[in-house]
């Protein structure tokens, strides 16, 4: 007993200060990102009267955009999604739907609805694609520029690559068939390319939770907080981490993660890096890292920009089971990409990305669940062995949660000052409540899932994962939820 | 941990954090309350003022003066509200309604203020002034916009350039042409779109850009040539396609020729289809495939056996039905 | 054209009211609809002499409304309002049975003239 006590005591003495420093650093760095983001929003708001979006929307000179949309068993939503993408306000965009070997009627519905005809020309070979491409279908009418690529099932990344292969416009945007897109999305997300055509290579649109919103014919018409607590917490989490966090990174010119649900790229750069990595789980992250590496290595000036205005809406997992799977996958993806690009970390050659962003992701994203959980194990142990005074321990715990709560509240303040999309009083109450409850259980649970994902990656259960995800789709035909994108 | 900090320090930190949280909650609540109050006040104001703006916007000439009186006496919030409503409407209208709304803004004093803000030291103010001056139907605005198109701030230059285009006046063209070179810092898309908006006056002037030493100018010129029906554009485009050093200019020329559908360009396109630059090859072949088959049958048959798959593909494209 | 009934369907309040006011001042009896769905309902039941229909609306677009109308064999003359660069809208509009179109930015006065012409023709 005494020996255990001594060991524990030594662990405490050794870990106390680093843990404390870590906890202060992680929350403070989030606060810093939020502050950066709010500065950007303030600057942006003063310019809202002269964005030039209208003239872009009307100009035949605007860069053409290829919208690539992978579809796997989407028969219920596919027509609405394709219509809404075809109807986006933009002078020159084509839509390429890639049917990833759906086992339902997705393809037939597309052919019938849009009167598609086969295109038997040779396929371009710009990008390697694994899944066998069966047939290309095109719309014979000039009313809409629609191509459907029908291929065997090979997973999301490979499916996107197949779509990119057929993309003919200067910019390529990847969207998911089940996310809802605002009518001005292409204008907003392509704006950095028009403003800074020399440097902009990629932009990412923000993804928000559609749960709780009122939807009419594939468009979000009224924004609201979801009723379920689990979804509420995710809304707040998305605000803090994705909206504000990424805006902050973009301000530092060190954005390394673009959402797979609305990422726009220059086509020549996409082809140059070889498209998405079909083996990667964090394929969106991996792609952006590859672009950073290419541009830094070839010493070309470039920018990856985050567009914070809401453009894309996706359903967040309403059940623990799906959420757990999503978080395991995200963390596994995070680990694999960080490990793959470890050579860039702390490498001055890669600028802010190498010196700030990547170390941040290692320390505050990858290791966060490990430290969170070790704290949760050590503190009770310390209490049990009388190493920690109960009152003192409790106070420490409260401080840590209060700081975390404050960071989320700061994010809510910035959202209120900028976009204030959750306009009802009830929604504000919901947000604050969710920010509070997040600390009591949700944080800890996600930490467990994230560790599981990491562990799975370390054990190397590699190939199964993609298949498992797909199987999950089939198990739950009633729930129209997918893993979601960051 | 027990010896790390005295318990009093931790207690103070805890209190500080708690206070910070409470402050944040109060702040977000107050902000929302203020926004709500502002919003409903604005709504009441708009309900009162908007009908007057609408009335003036569609008024016949003889009734206009009468409906402007109300705006002359407006102050403070009411005036700002009228300004923003009229400005918003200006984006969607032309002709008589645009003129009428310009009178509304003049009655509000907006135009005088915008003109004086063109010399403000704050770039955002100058940019806003440029935006308003470009929306209205007001000949004197052009000289200010031409000056702002040379502003030291990139942002102001871009807004002024767009505004010059929207004004659609012949005097604007020289300023727009001056913004064409890449050194102007205004994105080529912005300048090009502005020249297009002022197409009736810019058509003749655009042709000169074909011989500019700046490839960015040549490229924008090549793109614009097919949109503004610049006189003599076709031979110049064909020359650019055949001889320009810059692949991006040749691509732009090929795309423009595609829009113009000129038979004379077939030999030049066919030659460009074997260029060493793949973008030029694709653009040229794509253009050929959209031409009437009678003009291109032979060359396309040949290109369908080209070693590059992209060319074979582009050559086999079926023209899209209308 | 006193007494002729016109329906104006546009989700943008400013444009809708400008048109309604201009047509109203010329003696038309103008009804408005705030979106595609209610526009279609009113058009089907309202016995109008002409319809001014915006193309770009959330939910049901002007093209959707028009094709539903023509499918229901309503032959009321329809004038479409489209954005300047959206040539496809014009093509799609004529394909489903539009009679005329006006591009934004537009002149309400010119629109009135077109409506007059459309109703005389029809």
Give a written overview of the molecule.
The complex is a heterotrimer of chains A (486), B (322) and C (122). Chain A has helices at 2-46, 53-58, 78-86, 106-114, 156-166, 185-195, 229-251, 267-273, 283-297, 320-340, 351-366, 368-384, 390-417, 425-459, 464-475, and strands at residues 65-71, 93-100, 117-119, 133-138, 146-151, 171-175, 180-181, 200-209, 214-216, 219-222, 262-266, 303-314. Chain A is an alpha/beta fold. Chain A has two domains: 1-63 and 173-462, no CATH class; 66-169, no CATH class. A ten-stranded mixed β-sheet of chain A has the order 3-4-5-2-1-6-11-8-12-7, with helices on both faces. Chain A has a two-stranded antiparallel sheet with strand order 9-10. The longest helix of chain A has 45 residues, at 2-46. Chain A is globular, with a radius of gyration of 23 Å. By secondary structure, chain B is mainly alpha-helical. Chain B has 18 helices and no strands. Chain B starts with 6 loop residues before the first helix and ends in a 7-residue tail after the last helix. The mean pLDDT of chain B is 89. The longest helix of chain C has 14 residues, at 108-121. Chain C has helices at 13-25, 36-45, 62-71, 87-95, 108-121; strands at residues 5-9, 29-33, 50-54, 78-83, 100-104. Chain C has 122 residues and is α/β, with parallel strands linked by helices. Chain C is globular, with a radius of gyration of 13 Å. Chain C has a single domain, classed as Rossmann fold (3-Layer(aba) Sandwich), CATH 3.40.50.2300. Chains A and B meet through helix 1, helix 2, helix 13 and helix 14 of A and helix 1, helix 6, helix 8, helix 10 and helix 12 of B. Chain C: InterPro entries: CheY-like_superfamily, Sig_transdc_resp-reg_receiver, WalR-like. Chain C: Residues 5-119 form the Response regulatory domain. Chain C: GO terms for molecular function: phosphorelay response regulator activity; transcription cis-regulatory region binding.
């Amino acid at each position: 007993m005494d020996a255990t006590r001594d060991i524990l005591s030594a662990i405490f003495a050794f870990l106390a200060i680093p843990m404390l420093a870590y906890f202060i650093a992680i929350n403070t760095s989030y606060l810093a990102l939020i502050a950066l983001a709010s500065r950007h929003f303030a600057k942006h708001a003063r310019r809202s009267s002269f964005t030039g979006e209208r003239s872009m929307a009307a100009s035949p000179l605007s860069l053409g955009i290829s919208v690539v949309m992978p579809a796997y068993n989407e028969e219920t939503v596919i027509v609405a999604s394709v219509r809404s993408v075809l109807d986006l306000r933009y002078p020159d965009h084509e839509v390429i739907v890639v049917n990833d070997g759906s086992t339902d009627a997705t393809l037939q519905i597309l052919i019938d609805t849009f009167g598609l005809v086969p295109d038997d020309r040779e396929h371009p070979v710009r990008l390697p694609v694994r899944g066998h491409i069966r047939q290309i279908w095109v719309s014979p009418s000039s009313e809409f520029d629609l191509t459907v690529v029908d291929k065997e099932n090979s997973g999301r990344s490979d499916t996107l690559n197949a779509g990119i292969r057929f993309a003919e416009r200067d910019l390529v945007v990847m969207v998911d068939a089940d996310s809802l897109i605002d009518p001005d999305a292409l204008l907003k997300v392509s704006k950095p390319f028009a403003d800074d055509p020399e440097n902009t290579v990629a932009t990412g649109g923000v993804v928000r939770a559609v749960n709780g919103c009122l939807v009419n014919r594939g468009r979000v018409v009224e924004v609201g907080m979801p009723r379920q607590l689990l979804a509420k917490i995710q809304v707040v989490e998305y605000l803090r981490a994705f909206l504000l966090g990424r805006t902050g990174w973009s301000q530092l010119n060190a954005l390394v993660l673009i959402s797979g649900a609305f990422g726009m790229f220059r086509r020549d750069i996409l082809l140059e890096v070889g498209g998405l990595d079909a083996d990667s789980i964090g394929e969106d992250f991996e792609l952006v890292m590859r672009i950073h590496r290419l541009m830094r290595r070839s010493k070309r000036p470039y920018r990856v920009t985050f567009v914070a205005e809401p453009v894309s809406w996706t359903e967040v997992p309403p059940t623990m089971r799906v959420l757990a799977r999503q978080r395991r996958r995200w963390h596994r993806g995070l680990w694999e990409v960080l490990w793959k690009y470890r050579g860039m970390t702390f490498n001055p050659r890669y600028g802010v990305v190498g010196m700030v962003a990547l170390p941040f992701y290692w320390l505050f994203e990858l290791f966060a669940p490990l430290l969170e959980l070790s704290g949760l194990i050590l503190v009770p142990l310390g209490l049990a062995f009388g190493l920690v005074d109960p009152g003192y321990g409790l106070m420490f715990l409260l401080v840590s949660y209060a700081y975390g709560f404050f960071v989320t509240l700061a994010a809510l303040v910035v959202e209120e000052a900028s976009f204030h999309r959750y306009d009802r009083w009830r929604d504000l109450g919901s947000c604050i409540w969710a920010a509070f409850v997040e600390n009591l259980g949700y944080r800890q649970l996600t930490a467990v899932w994230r560790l599981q994902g990491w562990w799975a990656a370390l054990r190397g259960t590699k190939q199964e994962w993609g298949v498992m995800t797909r199987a999950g789709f089939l198990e739950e035909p009633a729930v129209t939820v997918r893993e979601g994108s960051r | 941990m027990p010896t790390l900090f005295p318990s009093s320090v931790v207690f103070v930190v805890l209190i500080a954090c708690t206070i910070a949280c409470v402050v944040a909650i109060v702040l977000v609540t107050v902000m929302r309350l203020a926004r709500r109050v502002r919003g409903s006040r604005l709504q009441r104001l708009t309900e009162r003022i908007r009908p007057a703006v609408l009335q003036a916007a569609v008024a016949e000439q003889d009734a206009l003066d009468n409906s402007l009186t109300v705006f002359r006496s407006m102050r403070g919030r009411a005036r700002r509200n009228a300004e923003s409503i009229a400005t918003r409407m200006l984006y969607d209208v032309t002709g008589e309604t645009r003129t009428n709304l310009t009178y509304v803004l003049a009655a509000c004093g907006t135009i005088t203020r915008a003109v004086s803000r063109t010399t403000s030291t704050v770039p955002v103010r100058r940019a806003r002034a440029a935006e308003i001056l470009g929306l209205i139907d007001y000949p004197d605005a052009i000289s200010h916009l031409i000056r702002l198109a040379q502003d030291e701030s990139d942002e102001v230059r871009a807004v002024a350039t767009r505004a010059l285009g929207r004004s659609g006046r012949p005097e604007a063209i020289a300023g727009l042409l001056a913004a064409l070179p890449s050194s102007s810092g205004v994105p080529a898309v912005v300048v090009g779109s502005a020249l297009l908006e002022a197409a009736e006056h810019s058509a003749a002037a655009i042709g000169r850009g074909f011989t500019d030493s700046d490839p960015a100018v040549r490229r924008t010129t090549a793109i614009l040539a097919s949109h503004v029906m610049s006189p003599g554009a076709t031979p110049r485009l064909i020359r650019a396609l055949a001889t320009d050093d810059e692949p991006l200019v040749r691509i732009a020329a090929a795309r423009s020729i595609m829009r113009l559908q000129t038979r004379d360009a077939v030999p030049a396109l066919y030659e460009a289809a074997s260029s060493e630059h793949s973008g030029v090859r694709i653009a040229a072949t794509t253009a050929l495939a959209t031409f009437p088959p009678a003009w291109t049958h032979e060359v396309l048959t040949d290109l369908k056996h080209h070693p590059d798959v992209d060319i074979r593909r582009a050559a086999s494209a079926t023209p899209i039905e209308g | 054209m006193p007494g002729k009934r016109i329906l104006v369907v546009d989700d943008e309040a400013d444009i809708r009211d400008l048109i309604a006011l201009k047509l109203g001042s010329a003696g038309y009896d103008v009804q408005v609809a705030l979106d595609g769905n209610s526009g279609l309902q009113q058009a089907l039941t309202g016995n109008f002499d002409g319809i001014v229909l915006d193309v770009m609306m959330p939910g049901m677009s002007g093209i959707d409304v028009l094709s539903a109308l023509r499918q229901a064999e309503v032959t009321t003359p329809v004038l479409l309002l489209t954005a300047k660069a959206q040539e496809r809208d014009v093509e799609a509009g004529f394909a489903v049975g539009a009679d005329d179109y006006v591009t934004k930015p537009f002149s309400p006065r010119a629109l009135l003239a077109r409506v007059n012409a459309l109703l005389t023709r029809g």
